[in-house]
Amino acid sequence: MNKNMRQKRINKEEALKLFKSKSLLDLGKMAGEIRKNKHPDNIVTFIIDRNINYTNICASECRFCAFYKKYGVSDKEAYILSKEQIFEKIKETKELNGTQILLQGGLNKDIEINYYIELLRDIKEKFKIHIHAFSPPEITFISDLNDITIKETVNLLKDAGLGSVPGGGAEILTDRVRNKISPNKINSRQWLEVMKEVHLAGLNSSATMMFGTVETDEDIMEHLFKLRDLQDETGGFKAFIPWSFQSKNTALNPRGVYGHYYLKVLAISRIVLDNFDNIQASWVTQGAKMGQVALSFGANDMGSTMLEENVVKAAGTSNSTVDEKLMVKLIKDAGFVPAQRINNYDIIKFY
User: What is the pLDDT confidence band of residue 69, given thresholds at 50, 70 and 90?
Assistant: First the structure.
């Protein structure tokens, strides 16, 4: 990174020009330097957790999703998990040194708000585990279904045991793209408003970006700068996770992106999001080896071991889960110091 760029914050036009004109290696070098400045200790973190999808019934019917079952249609594979099923999954997670569950599900009109409240309370009563749950579309859906505000919804969930909020449902934060790939889902303004309320309630969240559908480079920049602006205002985002769309079993015909483009997006994300400390490598969509490479293109975190993952798998990805032992080996082999973290990025174990 040159001296002038270090002295002034990059703007949207400069970022787009950089993204379009610089080679992959040039961008990677710039992003790697920023990562080193933010994380000079050469530590790469990961978390042991499990994705629990409490229902696959969803009224949103996004074109990029192969996981959901239509609301109101009889389907033998449609489900709502019982508390006992969820508790068993959490018990297994704890036995594997897990510190967190990621609890997300479809937009299911048959689930009343008491399901969420009682589930959170019962989990906190039975288990010492962090609950990272309910993306902005889910929070908005609960709010609308019960005729209460977003703020009230967030506080009800927080009081019941919600610890933080995942960045799901962001896709691309431009409505031109959202209207094509997820027309029944909340718009970009609503997603940002939910995250603002989450942060104002004292909860942290992650932010994501799914690219490789119908968006342009300009849309990607719009997404990144909207996140940067909100982070300037609230400081509530703990991490950013960009990942590429997996299309095999979906109804969407994407433009398609490959590994080099993923790394360019990752690198420009690190350059633009100067107020984000942590950028995750998406080994789930890119594979473990590409996850290693991402650590030299701006990423400082390998995300989750994902003891269970259903949504990306349903779309056709063949990447399996990565256990603790393999995660440590991947990080060490890439030349970094592996460390297990918890949700707020505090380190609880070095290897």
Answer: low
Rounded to whole angstroms, the Cα distance separating 162 from 280 reads 22
Q: How many CA atoms lie within 13 Å of 94's alpha carbon, on the beta-carbon side?
A: 13
> Cα–chain-centroid distance for residue 46?
14
Does position 249 have pLDDT exceeding 60, yes or no? no
Size of the chain, expressed as the number of residues it contains: 351
Contact 105, 71 (CB under 8 A): no
* Secondary structure (H, E, C), the chain: CCHHHHHCCCCHHHHHHHHHHCCHHHHHHHHHHHHHHHCCCCEEEEECEEEEECECEECCCCCCCCCCEECCCCCCCCCECCHHHHHHHHHHHHHCCCCEEEEECCCCCCCCHHHHHHHHHHHHHHCCCEEEECCHHHHHHHHHHCCCCHHHHHHHHHHHCCCEECCCCCCCCCHHHHHHHCCCCCCHHHHHHHHHHHHHCCCEEEEEEEECCCCCHHHHHHHHHHHHHHHHHHCCEEEEEEEECCCCCCCCCCCCCCHHHHHHHHHHHHHHCCCCCEEECCHHHHCHHHHHHHCCCCCCEEEECCCCCCHHHHCCCCCCCCCHHHHHHHHHHCCCEEEEECCCCCEEEEC
Write down the pTM of the prediction.
Answer: 0.90
Residue 343, both tokens: 């949700």
> pLDDT for 282-310, tens place per residue?
888 788 899 999 999 999 999 998 776 44
pLDDT band at 121 (very low <50, low <70, confident <90, very high): very high
| Region of residue 74 (phi > 0: left; psi between -120 and 50: alpha; otherwise: beta) | beta
What mean pLDDT, rounded, does the chain reach? Answer: 89
Domains of the chain listed by start with CATH number: 10-350 (3.20.20.70)
Q: Cα–Cα distance between 87 and 84 in angstroms, integer?
A: 5
Identity of the residue numbered 14: E
Which amino acid is located at 97 in the chain?
N
CA distance linking residue 171 with residue 168, whole number of Å: 8
202: Cα within 13 Å, side-chain hemisphere: 7
